[in-house]
Description:
Membrane-bound Lytic Murein Transglycosylase D, Chain A; 3 helices; elongated; two-stranded antiparallel ribbon; 4 strands; 2 domains
Amino acid sequence: MASLENPLxxxxxxxATTAYPRSSRYYxxxxxxxxxxxxxxxxYLRRRLLPAPEGMADLTTHTVxxxxxxxxxGARYLGNAEQWWRIADANPVLDPRELxxxxxxxxxxxxxxxxxxxxxx
Length: 121
């Protein structure tokens, strides 16, 4: 791998590999191509592997109330409604609506995977 003389080159390189902003769960994944039998190429986004929830430091827990939604919890706890997926990652569910479908359920609000700190780190 070539060394980068200018730190901003690293930013440009990362942006060149993805069309998603840094706040997106798809940021940095890049794309791949599949060639079909007829020669037609299909470009697709590489698979995103979910982080291990046990590697996330707790900020707090939230007890679900009627009317809660993942996006509202993202805005409340993480300062951005579009970060709801971080809460979903910490509480593995197949459908994000499962996070708030059952009043009384306790869900984890965490720091991103690999960031030390919080209540348990």
